[in-house]
């Protein structure tokens, strides 16, 4: 299967105003690609920018970014690895997938094509598929109009008969010479004598026809995704408004999501950087409770961070980096659709992004018997269950024990001896549950170093 992405030059560049007509310009300042809004207004490829603006004054134009197109194509190649383990890049705007071994897994050709089309649409990309028994045949069909799948060589031979030679992307000189003798279709070219064709038009073109029809092998280099993700995007104009930066981050997050989906992996930490013209870069480290590959969730967290920390200067370039790819946390399905744990983790992540990591924390048990040292703060959601004891403990302790007269207490339990280790400051106490004159339930202790001294250490509810 070949996936041709004809609108890649346009789709590789995010827009902060998706409802506005937009075009991508080539190096000659002519329209190279246009969106449906511009097409509906009467703008066509090849027009100069001034002519297009004469038709639609509010037209939004962007220069073509071939580097960005290559990055997007590589990310989509990694995404496609969920459908096939053999992926190749085809030119600057297409992918090749070996799908013969995947048809049974995905329930047949129609089901696989539907899965791929739906996934690309969710990521914001459109593709024209071509299916053939040879890689070159799939490329030619994908670049044609309304291609039908060619499931064997006979069907491929039949379909390419009427396709124009221009679909082979040969040089203009060779196409012009062939057109001069009335050859404009692939079928007509295949009917020419092979020896004469080689002498007149070169062995390279004959080799290309042989790869197309399966007479010659057509090995392709397989795509190997990089171990990390590091993508940047230049912002059109120096932006200070967060709302104009979010579409760019959404685009980068969607590329990361695509790569992670193809590898069946997730990330638990993202490194965000915004570069300014005359100011040090602004950096945000976004940590999450669980590894995931959800671009929409990342965008929400980033928005919370940016609302808490306004931009210090106009932004020129944004970048997203992720290093540690791990197996994502699976959302457990149950009979009652009870997903309280997942929802709690999402709430904690958003609160941490909004309030800062120091505003939320959990308690984590420590290996000591001294109550005031038996727990410590941990990141929200990362705490460990506290050790269960035979005798009850108050939920909250006083910041420091308070002296109390024994005559004010009524003991309600037997003594519980707690001692520290020899490596700590020596501590030996007897703890009791008690009531005071106000009938409050207290947790009190007697210090063995000062037997006559009693202290309140906590309150029971």
Structural descriptors:
single chain, DNA damage, 461 residues, Rev_trsase/Diguanyl_cyclase, 14 helices, Dna Ligase, domain 1, 32% helix, 24% strand, alpha+beta, 4-stranded antiparallel beta sheet, 6-stranded antiparallel beta sheet, SulA_CellDiv_inhibitor, elongated
How many H/I helical runs? 14
How would a crystallographer describe the biggest sheet?
6 strands, antiparallel
Query: Uncertain runs with pLDDT below 50, 5 residues or more?
Result: none
* Residues in helices, as a percent range: 25-40%
Number of domains: 3
Distance between the termini: 67 Å
- How much of the sequence lies in strands comes to 15-25%
* Coarse structural class: alpha+beta
Using the CA coordinates, give the radius of gyration: 33 Å
Task: State the total count of DSSP E strands.
Answer: 19
Domain UmuC: 27-140
InterPro entries: DNA/RNA_pol_sf (IPR043502), Rev_trsase/Diguanyl_cyclase (IPR043128), SulA_CellDiv_inhibitor (IPR050356), UmuC (IPR001126)
Family: Belongs to the DNA polymerase type-Y family.
Keywords: DNA damage
